[in-house]
Amino acid sequence: MPETVILGGARTPFGKFGGSLKDKAAVELGGTAIRAALEKSGVSDEAVDEVIMGMVLQGGAGQIPARQAARHAGLSWEVGSETINKVCASGLRSVTLADQILRAGDASLIVAGGMESMSNAPYALPDARFGHRMGDGKVVDLMVHDGLWCAFHDVHMIIHGSQTAKDQGISREEQDEWALRSHQRAWKAIQAGWFAEEIVPVQVKTRMAEQTVVQDEAVRPDTSLDKLAALKPAYVKDGTITAGNAPGVNDGAAALVVSIREQAEKLGLKPWARILGHASVGMEAKDFPITPAYAVKKLLQKHQLSPQDIDLYEINEAFAAVALANRKILGIDAEKLNVNGGAVALGHPIGASGARILLTLVMELRRRGGGMGIAAICSGAAQGDAVLVRVDA
After folding, report:
1. CATH code at 292?
2. What does pTM read for this prediction?
3. Cα–Cα–Cα angle for 359, 363, 365, nearest 5°?
4. Residue-number span of the structural domain to which 297 is assigned
5. Which of 72, 160, 183, 348 is catalytic?
6. Average per-residue pLDDT in the chain?
């Protein structure tokens, strides 16, 4: 069976909700990430067989967003495309689907990733198509309804996150401390120029002039435990999740170029990393925050590895409690987990985050001279996905 390799990748900065990227459609951001990923990997447009992009908030985006993104990237009409919606796991599932297609021999090179503009999520008017005979209508925020709301328990995802924190014995103080760590480490990575290696600047127009967005907008280097402690719990009166220890809603995109090794050699390109395998699990919907741990366990068992055999982990910080709960279940050393901060600081554009954590993981392993790493992510309705990669020294 062919071996799948990662030839390169790139992402946009992650913008704040209503921030600098608010006027960029998700497909534009996706196109920017695709183009940059190809340029960073040294792959020509003609070598691309297919584009697979995750996107959750597709309402109002138009037909097949992945194809729109491919065209924004300048790729030809002959390049096929697929759009994936696995909620927060969409960007990571795009890569694992690409891996499966490549290993099956149905393509030689695929660009895979995810994109989201939460700022551009529209509102819907349920029951309006055939008219409201009398009385008031209803307006539904599709960002919340399609992205942040449990379809099975009819509650915001924060409700499940708060219950998980309680079940796992994770205090408010621990969550705030992890959030502070996320911001501090992300800021350190920005100052060191590490994220600049994976970010492609985005040009935006304002009323006054053009602006170049070069870094993630949600990182708060000036936050503190006192500031975090002052925030009120969200959705649950006596809960522990706040706006400070959860990520914001964000805009951004990430893409990776994946191919079979034979194609990489034919193109004369040295892979950034090898995809060794992946796994996914499903659990009861309310247990979504802990699904990454069980996906990781399944993946490790498949490869006869222990959690300690892995050099680095990137587990998406859907909340600080998610990182803490999964670390606790797996017994991971904190110094191996989200070493450059996570989504609490960087942001969580839900369709893009899975691809972002994999790209960040590969970049950090390369900086360290190689090793094995796992990127894992939870998603609404309690599915967890994990990918195992190796960067050769």
Report:
1. 3.40.47.10
2. 0.97
3. 115
4. 4-120+248-391
5. 348
6. 98
Rounded distance, CA 54 to CA 196, Å? Answer: 23
Residue 360 contacts residue 131 (beta carbons within 8 Å): no
pLDDT score recorded for residue 1: 84
Query: Given the DSSP bridges, would you call strands 50-54 and 80-84 parallel, antiparallel or unpaired?
Result: parallel
Catalytic residue among 72, 183, 278, 378: 378
Residue 64's region, left for phi above 0, alpha for psi from -120 to 50, else beta, is: left
Q: Is there a catalytic annotation at residue 88? A: yes
Active-site residue flag, 348: yes
Give domain status of residue 66, yes or no: yes
Q: Answer for the pair 283, 164: CB distance below 8 angstroms, yes or no.
A: no
Residue 378 bears catalytic tag: yes
CB atoms within 10 A of CB 41: 27
Q: 58: which residues sit within 8 A by CB, 6+ positions away? A: 65, 83, 85, 146
Identify whether the C-beta of residue 36 lies closer than 8 Å to the C-beta of residue 278.
no
Reported as a single tens digit per residue, the pLDDT across 168-219 is: 999 999 999 999 999 999 999 999 999 999 999 999 988 888 999 999 999 9
* Tokens coding 339: 């070493």
- The catalytic position among 72, 88, 183, 278 is 88
Inside any domain, residue 77: yes
- Would residue 217 count as lying in a domain? no
The reply to whether 17 falls in a domain is yes
- In angstroms, the Cα distances linking 252 to 6, 29, 83, 292 are 21, 6, 16, 22
Total domains in the chain come to: 1
